[in-house]
Amino acid sequence: MPRSRRPVGEPADPGSSSPWILMYHSVTVEEEDPYQLTVSPERFAEQIAWLHKRGRRGVSVRELMRARAHGRDDKLVGLTFDDGYADFARYAVPILQAYGFTATAYVVADLLGQDNGWDTEGPRKKLLTVEEVAELAVAGWEIGSHGLGHRALPGLAADVLAVQTRESRRLLEEVVGGPVTGFCYPYGAVDAPAALAVRDAGYDYACAIAHSPLTGRFALPRCYVGDRDGAWRLRAKKGRHRLRDAFTELRRRRGTRAERAVTERRS
């Protein structure tokens, strides 16, 4: 039985705006980075220090959504790490702990302990092992699902979507010994059937990347963070997030009014 039957386009509560969530992947030293997914530990430390100086506290998306439900998220920013790279535990966690921050690691359930074979042009990066994921969960870090094998969900048949979402959650709950309530779409790719599958699999929320007509609790937009992002670029990205959020909400309201007008004409 699904835990949630929320509409997939429901805005993140309370209100209509989306929370500010940063999207990281790998934190390490890398000579080759064709996909621009790697942030050096030094740059990452600078970015986290900047958030701290601005009075922000980085938290997992689970904690962010809970605080938001009670109107207590004003100074919080979600920190997410896609793919579940082993360097999250080695480099990112100690820096986050130094500031009292938390974060969410989205891991690929069928590939724990293997590598990022889906990145054909990039260097091979080790993924967190089953044991490491379990240890992180015990230590309080949120573990979310990134699907079974890092497969894009749009266009998949309904039964395949159900397996990707439900089975990945089941496997990870066995590893962490508790509920897994967050999902992150591989490649950030989401359409309506994928969002419905995630909702029906019992997740409480899901992270995408871009703002879209589906923006809401099951397609939360995020800001990409790379190694070039210093204080000025982070400020700019925060402002751009607000503008895109306002534009998305305006389009949503216009669409709702248009649908209401059509309904009234037909009645």
TrEMBL record:
TM regions (residue ranges): none
InterPro entries named in the record: Glyco_hydro/deAcase_b/a-brl, NODB_dom, Polysacch_Deacetylase
GO BP field: carbohydrate metabolic process
PROSITE patterns associated with the record: NODB
CDD domains assigned to the protein according to its UniProt record, in alphabetical order: CE4_NodB_like_5s_6s
GO MF, one annotated term: hydrolase activity, acting on carbon-nitrogen (but not peptide) bonds
Pfam families: Polysacc_deac_1
Gene Ontology cellular-component annotations: extracellular region
Superkingdom of source: Bacteria
Compartments it resides in: Secreted
Signal peptide: none
Keywords: Signal
Domain (NodB homology): residue spans on this chain: 75-267
Protein name: Polysaccharide deacetylase
Annotated organism of origin: Kitasatospora aureofaciens
